Amino acid sequence: MPVKNRFAELLPEITAWRRDFHQNPELDYQVHRTAGRVAELLRSFGLDEVAEGVGRTGVVGVIRGRSNASGRVIGLRADMDALPINEQTGAEYASKTPGVMHACGHDGHTAMLLGAAKYLAETRNFDGTAVVIFQPAEEGGAGGLAMVRDGLVERWGIQEFYGMHNMPGYPVGSFAIREGAMMAAADQFDIVITGKGGHAAKPHEAVDTMLVAAQVIVSLQSVVARNVDPLKSGVVSVCVVQSDSTAHNVIPQVVKLKGTARSLAPEVRDQLEEGISRVATHTAAAFGAMAEVTYERGYPVTMNHPEATGFAAEVARQVAGAVDMEMEPLMAGEDFSYMLNERPGAYIFVGNGDTAMVHHPAYDFDDNAIPAGSSWYAGMIEARMPLPA
Fold first, then answer.
1. pLDDT per residue over 77-102, tens digit each?
2. Contacts of 228 (CB under 8 A, 6+ apart)
3. Collapsing DSSP states into helix, strand and coil, what is residue 87?
4. How do 73-79 and 302-304 pair as beta strands?
5. Which site among 46, 172, 254, 281 is 20 to 30 Å from 271 CA-CA?
6. What single DSSP character describes residue 368?
């Protein structure tokens, strides 16, 4: 396939970009160096427009095809931010910033989309407009929402969105996708349990908030086990237990719980929110304590549109020969969902091989996946906006 052959030629150059990003990771919206380098490269490719500061630190590039009879505008998105993790890869290009690393492959996503942008600017073998989107703050900062609120869709008239993420465990350069819910809604909750503190040797004179917290943690699992339809998916995980005392012999007055709730359907999301509040408050009350629950909705479900999923899979099939169309949905969250809530589109996974899982300190993006990933990005533009015969 010509696109794939061109990216094989570009592989050393794209790999160098990727490893530079890997050595210089940045968090959240503070991706100033990364965004600046992205904008610099896009301008060197000869794009028709390069805009910086979209959604605070996002970058948008515009490439016009040889013709525009279709009037179609397709958006391709990659994320740029890293994670607050100490790297343990031992790679020669390992992070130079202590406590920060590209542990999710966003360096690879950015490099692959840059490669596609370079190819598309060189060839322009399409009828319409390609918009390349480099997003900050995917890792919890809702950078996708920030870019949407900053006029991403309206300013560039984007009609469809396509995004990609690498996936360890799948063969390098292979693809996987599914129609419908691809990734979960990701919410968080805080529970503050207040009782009566006291001496650990006199529990009868106190209301033991630590015991109450333990009962709440166990009881919360009933929200999924006994309220959610067994044929639907839901996750409730308590991840932090924090008291107002660090002493071995003090029953604390206050214990705080923090956790996350994940779901793939709106009705399940509602059940989790209601159930967590109900179970926590009533369990605490049964022990003579009080629980105050704060539930915050985060990223919505990443929902692949049926027709767009077919388009994305067909291009992937041309690149890799076969596509796993039955990939199980993931309970992790993804803020590309905000873009898919605005316009039709799809989110696909490209294989990263037998590597550590994302968000692990030993994870590293496999540069051998670059030709396939860049080919898919560019192929989506050429396939969705073909030149007139």
1. 999 999 999 999 999 999 999 999 99
2. 234, 268, 271, 272
3. coil
4. unpaired
5. 254
6. G
Distance between CA atoms of residues 345 and 302, nearest Å: 10
Structure tokens at 134: 């480099």
Instruction: Read off φ and ψ for residue 95, nearest 5 degrees.
Output: -55, 135
Q: Which residues pair with 259 in a beta bridge?
A: 189, 238
Query: Parallel, antiparallel, or unpaired: how do β-strands 129-135 and 73-79 relate?
Result: parallel
**Reported pTM:** 0.95
Whether the Cβ atoms of residue 120 and residue 130 lie closer than 8 Å to each other = yes
Nearest CA to 20 out of 89, 108, 115 is that of: 108
Yes or no: say if 179 and 306 are a contact pair by the CB < 8 Å rule: yes
Encoded amino acid at 308, one letter: A
Instruction: State the Cα–Cα distance between residues 254 and 46, nearest whole angstrom.
Output: 59
pLDDT tens, position by position, 262-319: 999 999 999 999 999 999 999 999 999 999 999 999 999 999 999 999 999 999 999 9
The strand ranges marked E within 65-170 are 73-79, 129-135, 160-167
Summarize pLDDT for 212-226 with one digit per residue, the tens: 999 999 999 999 999
Could you give the percent of the chain with pLDDT greater than 90?
Answer: 98
Give CA–CA dist 322/318, Å, rounded. Answer: 8
Distance CA 253, CA 209 (A): 7
- What's the rounded Cα separation, in Å, for the pair 48 and 324? 36
Angle at 315 between CA 310 and CA 317, to 5 degrees: 90
